[in-house]
Amino acid sequence: MRPAQEPCGVEPRDLRGARGQACPLHRGRFPAPRTRTRRWVMPNGAHLTLAEAEPGERLEVDAILFQIVRDRCSDLGIERGTALTCTRNREGGVAVRLPDGRSGVLERHYAWFVQTTRLPSRVRSAAG
Questions:
Q1: pTM score
Q2: What's the gap between Cα 109 and its chain centre?
Q3: Residue 104 CB burial class (10 angstroms; 0-12, 13-18, ≥19)
Q4: Among 49, 58, 56, which Cα is nearest to 106's?
Q5: Closest residue by Cα to residue 110 from 76, 59, 60
Q6: Where in the chain is the domain with CATH 2.30.30.90?
Q7: Which of 34, 41, 59, 62 is 20 to 30 A off residue 127, Cα-Cα?
Q8: Looking at the domain 50-118, which fold is it?
């Protein structure tokens, strides 16, 4: 049995994926589908962005995508090939510590454009 058509001639099931671009008769009945944010992780375990780093992780910077982000990163001492440790990842920004002991906070809207690779954590040997 075929479902009844609306007065405009469009069947309701045809509008489910229309993202709110339906005819005026259907507007509001079929809301736009929600988009989901995904955490993309590369197969080798590398993060795609510094913004996804967890506190305590050691990372190496692979690429900085835009010149304005490169300028901000160079102010902090971060450039391609720099190894760093994420010390805090909050809404305002990502706090990092460089191997020479310097630390800084990169704003989150910049951190999304810094591609990194996860480094193995340091193994501490027992002194004895």
A1: 0.59
A2: 10
A3: middle
A4: 49
A5: 76
A6: 50-118
A7: 59
A8: SH3 type barrels. (2.30.30)
